[in-house]
Design brief:
Number of helices: 17
CATH class of the largest domain: Alpha Beta
Bound molecules: 1,3-dihydroxyacetonephosphate, iron/sulfur cluster
Shape: globular
Strand order of the largest sheet: 2-1-3-4
Structural class: alpha/beta
Order of helices and strands: HHHEHEHEHEHEHEHEHEHHEHEHEHEHH
CATH architecture of the largest domain: 3-Layer(aba) Sandwich
CATH topology of the largest domain: Rossmann fold
Number of domains: 3
Length: 335
């Protein structure tokens, strides 16, 4: 029995226990429980700072999928959103995959379901379907290729140029990929992430004029990506430095760049890790309101309960998982 359980058992004011329990104790309880349960904790770059701190790996969707696929541990506790845990459940059918809150969804993955995709495919017979990892398992089961923001361009480049491509569900990432690959036969689903779509070109313009010496790191899901790419291509930024990167791409760039100041256009959770790894550099959010409420549903309390009670297990039906696996394996094979 853990000291947390002993404390709950003996405390006559049981309801107050939650408040009395310090974050530090909770952190060490989780780390202890993690060992006992033989669990691997994965956390996405947008997770709360305290959740990132107890994770074995913090990273982007691709990196976390890779870690899940190669782990030897019995339990994978996924601190992220539901489609990420589902992807881990598909790649690791013999592991128990847990998510601390089943409500942690994704507005982008909700923009397309399997019926809609089947209908779209029937309108383009012979087209190759490429779906962002931010999709449900049922949608992945209908895909030829899965991709993430860090390998979407290379996945599309790997498809013969005479084949039509259906790209889903993010229209901003899709238009970025179409520009980078100069592909004319690519159809893009009109989906978006409410957090990234909420970062407006005006905010970009304001930051550009305010931070003249900063480097700009922009996630391809942002609604400003298309216009930023267009302007960069036209030379409108002169020698200003703008990088379109996945969250892990941003992390790597922030470390390797000689620049000292960065404006970051993605969910603000990534700033914690950036500042921690680069204390001598300055990171400014493009938009303070770029916060994903789904990512923030995962708290330390819920992580503890999830590990302790081995809830909530994410399971994907075998027939769906088998079909989705091929698309995911193709994603993992292309960097
Ligand atoms: P990354 O793959 O770049 O981490 O993005 C995942 C995501 O959900 C972005 O909103
Ligand atoms: Fe989904 Fe957007 Fe949240 Fe990423 S930031 S998990 S795309 S809702």
């Amino acid at each position: 029995m853990s000291s947390r359980e002993i404390c709950q058992h003996h405390d006559p004011l049981n309801g107050k226990e939650e408040q009395l329990y310090s974050a530090l104790d909770l952190k060490s309880e989780i780390l202890e429980l993690k060992k006992q349960k033989d669990a691997l904790i994965l956390a996405h770059n947008y997770q709360l700072p305290e959740v990132q701190d107890i994770a074995d790996y913090v990273g982007d969707s691709l990196g976390l999928s890779r870690q899940a696929a190669k782990t030897e541990q019995k339990i994978i506790l996924f601190c992220g959103v539901h489609f990420m845990a589902e992807t881990a459940a598909i790649t690791c059918p013999n592991k128990k995959v847990l998510i601390p809150d089943l409500g942690a969804g994704c507005s982008l993955s909700d923009t397309i379901n399997a019926d809609q995709l089947r209908k779209w495919k029937s309108e383009h017979p012979g087209a190759v379907t490429v779906g962002y990892v931010n999709t449900s398992a049922e949608v992945k089961a209908e895909l030829d290729y899965c991709c993430t923001s860090s390998n979407a361009v290379n996945v599309v480049r790997s498809i013969p140029s005479d084949r039509e491509v259906l790209f889903l569900p993010d229209m901003f990432l899709g238009s970025y990929v179409a520009k980078m690959t100069e592909r004319k036969n690519m159809y893009i689903w009109a989906g978006e992430c409410h957090v990234h779509a909420g970062i407006k070109p005006q905010e970009v313009q304001e930051k550009l004029s305010q931070y003249t010496n900063a480097e700009f790191l922009v996630h391809p899901e942002c609604s400003c990506t298309s216009s930023v790419m267009y302007d960069v291509a036209c030379g409108d930024y002169g020698n200003r430095q703008v990088q379109i990167l996945s969250t892990e791409g941003m992390m790597n760039h922030a470390k390797s760049s000689a620049n000292k100041k960065f404006v970051v256009a993605t969910e603000t959770g990534i700033l914690y890790r950036m500042r921690k790894q680069n204390p001598e550099k300055e990171f400014i959010p493009m938009s303070d309101s770029a916060v994903c409420k789904y990512m923030k549903m995962i708290t330390l309390d819920k992580v503890y309960a999830s590990l302790n009670e081995e809830k909530y297990e994410v399971k994907v039906p075998r027939n769906v998982a088998q079909k989705a696996q091929l698309a995911i394996e193709r994603m993992l094979a292309i960097s």
